[in-house]
Design a protein that fits this description.
The protein has 2 domains: about 1-110 and about 330-390, Rossmann fold, CATH 3.40.50; about 125-305, RecF/RecN/SMC, N-terminal domain (Glutathione S-transferase Yfyf (Class Pi), Chain A, domain 2), CATH 1.20.1050. The protein is built from 9 helices and 16 strands. The relative contact order is 0.17. The chain has about 400 residues and is α+β, with helices and mostly antiparallel strands. A hairpin with a 5-residue loop joins β5 (about 80-90) and β6 (about 95).
């Protein structure tokens, strides 16, 4: 599957865009701040209803406009399908597929993208929330139903935290505290499903990670992923806002654990941590407290990997995600988006990355300098200046 046509209205710095795209590599070249990333951001938004640059949709609407429109025509073999989302500066977004109104979150059923960006270094060196989000987005790509499970879990977690904060301020005599067990049951049910799905995902992802890292580096440094599960251990301290553990001795697992055992240990850990949760007013056990520890040569890469090794691992993780989507998605290859990635790499890794992604159906690349991109990817080039497409051709 690839995007064959992109239309934008009042998106970022673009008043109007009407752009034909083909399969293969397509380069968007322009100086910083001219709008090249905005084009690929729009395509990513159609797939994820989110931006890799900002958390608020309001930032996507051109200054002075009340809404923006992103419209893409998808080509899958001989089939064509138009998808569209109207992005409201305030209020709800509206979406269409084939001219039919749908819920906005349904767009991800029709288009899948995998984004590579300099910020991906945080997958190795950043906070646990970054890695949790990476896994959960992959889960929803494979099974959109899990998006609802994750949303339900977040809702239960907020309600449970509200009760814990109340107990902290009002004391154990707060009459609302007796409802905590009801929320415990929902937290365990939903949380166990999320953790079990993450474990299954990691088992499928790691073989792709190993192959991707070897392609990018040309060596076997035994990359891997182990989940640190709060349901199997406990946090010894917490970070700012009591949201992230600073030094977590929760149990690492790279192996199998049955759903029943996982649920039973989740229940047991909640009981153990009840006093600490009331004291702190926050839920200390569950998938929101877990981490995916990226390993290299048998050690946590966050602590031991060099800058170059960390970059290679981050790229290999995204390449592994793309290969997994390719293997499991009914829509075929994901659209690969590389936003200003090649400028971060030396010449050897540029060539290795270009070779690793060369057989994907569509690869969209942004760059400030055309010379940063290997010659093998120069077939389709679009030049951007000041929010205007000023030229096509290499």
């Amino acid at each position: 599957m690839h995007v064959s046509h992109l239309q934008l209205r009042d998106f970022r710095n673009y008043r109007e865009v009407d752009l034909e795209l083909g399969p293969g590599a397509h380069l968007f070249v322009g100086a910083n701040g001219q709008g090249k990333t905005n084009l690929v951001e729009a395509i990513g938004y159609l797939a994820s209803l989110g931006s890799h640059r900002v958390s608020s949709d309001a930032a996507l609407v051109r200054l002075g406009a009340e809404s923006a429109i992103a419209r893409g025509e998808l080509s899958h073999g001989n089939r064509r399908l138009r998808i569209e989302v109207q992005i409201a500066k305030a209020g709800s977004n509206r979406a269409q597929v084939g001219g039919r109104a749908v819920r906005a979150r349904e767009l991800s059923r029709y288009i899948t993208t995998v984004l590579f960006a300099p910020e991906d270094l945080a997958l190795v060196r950043g906070e646990p929330a970054v890695r949790r989000s990476f896994l959960d987005r992959l889960l929803v790509t494979h099974s959109p139903r899990l998006g609802g499970v994750l949303s339900d879990y977040d809702r239960v977690l907020r309600q449970r935290n509200s009760l814990l904060r109340s107990a902290r301020s009002q004391g154990r005599d707060d009459p609302r505290l007796h409802t905590l067990e009801v929320w415990d049951d929902r937290l365990v049910d939903l949380g166990t499903e999320i953790v079990a799905e993450r474990l299954r995902l990691v088992s499928r992802l790691v073989p792709h990670l190993e192959r991707g890292y070897a392609r990018l580096v040309g060596a076997d440094h035994a990359p891997g992923i182990q989940l640190r599960l709060s349901a199997l251990g406990q946090s010894t301290s917490v970070g700012v806002g009591d949201e992230e553990p600073e030094d977590d001795d929760s149990e690492l697992t790279g192996g199998e654990i049955s759903f029943e055992e996982l649920r039973a240990r989740f229940v047991h850990r909640l009981a153990e941590r009840r006093d600490a949760e009331i004291e702190r007013g926050v839920s200390l056990v569950g998938p929101h407290r877990d981490d995916a520890v990226i390993m290299l040569n048998g050690l946590p890469a966050r602590i031991t990997a060099s800058q170059g090794e960390s970059w290679s691992l981050a790229l290999a993780l995204k390449l592994a995600a793309a290969e997994l989507v390719r293997a499991e998605s009914q829509t075929g290859d994901p659209v690969l988006i590389l936003d200003d990635v090649f400028s971060e790499l030396d010449a050897d890794r540029r060539e290795r990355l270009a070779d690793a992604i060369g057989d994907f159906e569509q690869v969209l690349v942004t760059a400030a300098v055309l010379g940063d991109i290997p010659d093998s990817m120069h077939a389709q080039v679009t030049t951007i200046r000041g929010g205007t497409i000023v030229g096509d051709g290499a």
